[in-house]
Design goal:
The protein is mainly alpha-helical and 181 residues long. It is 73% helix and 0% strand. Helix 1 packs parallel to helix 3 (84-104), helix 1 (2-63) runs antiparallel to helix 4 (112-147) and helix 1 (2-63) crosses helix 5.
C-alpha cells in the first residue's frame, strides 16, 4: 500500500513537471511568434523606405542638373541581401543623402512627387521607431525567459538563445567608452 502512494506521488510530480515544461515551452513559442511578427513588420517598413528612396533617384535627376550617381547607397543595395539590422543602417545613410539633396536643391521641393516621397519617408520613420520599440520590448521579455530559472532549463534543452535588440545603432558601437567610475 505504501508503494502505491509513493508511485502515485512520483506520477503526480512527473505530471506537474511535464506540465511546467510544456507551459514554459509554449511561452517561448509565443514569444518567437511575436518576434517573427515584429521582424516582418520592420521588414515591411524597411522595404517601403527602400522603394521610396529608389523612386526618388529618378525624380532628383529629373529636377536637378546632377551628373553621375545619386543615392549610391540605394543603388548598391538593389543587388544585396542584408539583414534588417544592416538594411536599416544603410537606409538611414540613404535618407541622410536624400535630405542633403533636399537642402541643396530647392527646386526639388517644387516637385509634388518628391514632396510626397519626403512626407512618406517622415511617416515611415515614426512607424519604424514604433516597431523597433515593440520588437525590443518583446526581446526583453524573451531574454528574461531565457536567462531566468526555471525557464532557462527549457531554453537550454531546446537551445533557445538570447537575441539582440534592434536599436538602430552600429553593433560595433562601444557605449561604454564614455563611462567612468
Amino acid at each position: 500500500m505504501e508503494i502505491f502512494f509513493i508511485c502515485i506521488a512520483v506520477f503526480l510530480i512527473i505530471c506537474i513537471l511535464i506540465l511546467l515544461i510544456a507551459t514554459t515551452y509554449n511561452k517561448f513559442q509565443a514569444y518567437i511568434i511575436r518576434i517573427n511578427e515584429a521582424e516582418a513588420n520592420i521588414d515591411s517598413i524597411l522595404r517601403k523606405r527602400f522603394d521610396l528612396l529608389n523612386k526618388s533617384i529618378d525624380i532628383i535627376k529629373a529636377n536637378t542638373n546632377i551628373e553621375g550617381d545619386i543615392l549610391t547607397i540605394i543603388v548598391k543595395l538593389r543587388s544585396r541581401k542584408l539583414s534588417n539590422f544592416d538594411l536599416d543602417r544603410q537606409l538611414y545613410e540613404g535618407i541622410k543623402e536624400f535630405n542633403k539633396y533636399k537642402e541643396e536643391y530647392p527646386s526639388l521641393k517644387k516637385s509634388e512627387v518628391f514632396t510626397r516621397i519626403d512626407i512618406s519617408l517622415s511617416e515611415s520613420e515614426a512607424e519604424i521607431v514604433a516597431f523597433r520599440k515593440y520588437y525590443n520590448d518583446i526581446i526583453t521579455d524573451y531574454n528574461k525567459l531565457v536567462k531566468s530559472f526555471p525557464s532557462n532549463l527549457v531554453a537550454l534543452i531546446c537551445k533557445f538563445k538570447t537575441k539582440l535588440y534592434f536599436d538602430g545603432k552600429n553593433m560595433s558601437d562601444d557605449d561604454t567608452k564614455d563611462f567612468k567610475l
